[in-house]
Structure formats: structure tokens, C-alpha cells
Fold this sequence. Notes:
The protein has 165 residues and is an alpha/beta fold. It has 5 helices and 5 strands; from the N terminus they run αββααβαββα. The protein has helices at 7-29, 53-56, 63-75, 93-101, 142-164, and strands at 36-41, 44-50, 83-89, 106-111, 135-137. The protein has a 5-stranded mixed beta sheet. Helix 4 (93-101) links the parallel strand 3 (83-89) and strand 4 (106-111). Helix 1 (7-29) runs parallel beside helix 5 (142-164).
Amino acid sequence: MTTKTTASDAVFHEKCMLSALKEAKKAYDLGESPIGAVIVKDGKIIARAHNLRQTKQDATLHAEMVCISKACRKLSAWHLFDCDLYVTLEPCYMCAGAIIQSHIRHVYFGAYDPKGGAVFSKSKLFELPHNHHVESTGGILEEECSQLLKQFFRELRTQKKDRRE
């Protein structure tokens, strides 16, 4: 489900997504899939994270999962009531489940993920009956988020091709 935003809301959402993009660039520099996330409460970023799956050899270290863990530690609570998550790529099933379980209020994402997105693209997990309803909005700075991912995977394919030759 999506909600309407005002012009000032749109500026705020873009500012938060730019912070998530900064995190995605950190992941890129590490050779990780360039996905970044931030969690906002009361208009302030309380947690920032990026993918660390390759670096730490842990399949659960998606940007969203790391960010949720950081926010829980910061608030000393596992319920993230009144918190919003900004992430550069539409969440997968694992992350969408964690978002529901942590009671995040709203997810804002940049690029859609036609291969694994659990919010709109492959399924609409947030629309199923759960103990908590999560609002969602996609396409915030979609082009910037998408281009970073495309550039990363283009470079990765080139590196693999060069190694074979």
C-alpha cells in the first residue's frame, strides 16, 4: 500500500534515500552488492548500514537486517514502532519478514527488484494478513539506485570475463 506525499515530504524522503545511497556506495567499495539502508525515527537517522554478506560470509547480513539490528540496539527494543526504513533496493523475502517482525512503520525503497522483490515485484508480502501492517513506497531516487546496481554488476561480469580470458 502506498501513501500520498507532499512536496516537503518528497524532499525529506529523497534526503533519507541519499543517505542510504551513501551506505550503498560503502558496500560497492567493499565489493559487496551496493545496497544501503537507514532507519529514521522522529525525523532523525538512528541507524545506517550496508550489505556485508561477502565481507563477513553471512547470508543474513543484508543492509536491511544489519540496519534493523543497529536500530534495535540503539533503542534497546525489538519493536521499532514509529520508525521508517529507507533502502536502495526493494526488500527480499527475508528482509520483508524482519521488517514485519520488528514493526517498522513504513518502508521507502529506491529500485524495484524484479527477481527477488517481496514488496511489489515478485510478491506483495506486506499485503498479507500479519500481526503488523507495514506501509511501503517504491521508486524514490529509483534511477540513481538502479544505476549503481547496474554499474556494479556490469563491472563484476567484466572482471569474471577477464579472468576467464
